[in-house]
Design a protein that fits this description.
alpha/beta, Rossmann fold, 8 strands
Length: about 180
Amino acid sequence: MDLPNRKYKVIYADPPWRYDNIKTGGSMNSGASQKYNTMPLEDILSLPVKGIAEKNSVLFLWSTVPFLHDAFHVMNAWGFEYKTMLTWRKVMSCGLGFWFRGQTEHLLFGIRGQIKAFRSQKPNFIQSHTLKHSEKPAKIRALISEVTKGLEPKIELFARDRIQGWDCWGIEVPNSNQTILP
């Protein structure tokens, strides 16, 4: 799918990271690739996000702990300079993982060009119950909308739902065969 032919000041992305363990669990029917289409790192890196980013823009980029190293490379490849991150602690029973049971995901924040610091009084740690596989809490998008008020337009890459005030790009947006939805 081609990215939209439009420039954005706010880009929010949850890439479908591809884990090496394609099938996991006792049923061998678990893991991200069993839930949705994943992408190899090279394909994520080569997305032409620079082409849709305004000269002065921000990026919020999701990463699981195992992909943090790669996420920094993606941020750089997409033309953004890392500044900070937010951490989501998933309130759940045990978590998933091989080395440790992962109960956090991280939202890396970067800028391109000249962006005035938000100076938000909000903490960079959020706790919320888990939802469907890989679904993120709505309160995080609400926080992004709050701190980026006045920065328009906004787009969510790899979107799953239509959200008012955001363009959506992704193959999982319900009832749509379009790549971008206002």
